[in-house]
Design a protein that fits this description.
Elements lengths: L11 E4 L10 E4 L2 E4 L10 E4 L20 E4 L4 E4 L4
Antiparallel strand pairs: 1-4, 2-3, 5-6
């Protein structure tokens, strides 16, 4: 008997927002960060892309090298880079 069952590719995950979101919104769910490709109305099931390459706003006082791991600062609405984190 298998211990895992394939569900879908996983390039996007289902998401139902409590408030409407416009395309290009950043969605944080625990450790998972995704981007909406399309508008999603409040209370309506949509999807959030978790695979791909996206241009996002970053903290303007930092420099980030290609391939660096960044985190989303939901409070300030931009990506941040943590040197020792």
């Amino acid at each position: 008997m298998s211990v895992a069952e394939f569900v879908k590719q996983g390039a996007a995950v289902d998401y139902t927002p409590t408030a409407g979101l416009v395309a290009g919104s950043v969605v944080v769910q625990g450790e998972l960060v995704g981007i909406t490709k399309h508008d999603i109305r409040a209370g309506v099931l949509g999807s959030v892309s978790v695979v791909g390459v996206f241009d996002v706003t970053k903290n303007p006082v930092i420099s980030v090298s290609a391939g660096a791991k960044v985190h989303w600062d939901d409070t300030n609405g931009h990506a941040i880079y943590q040197v020792n984190g």
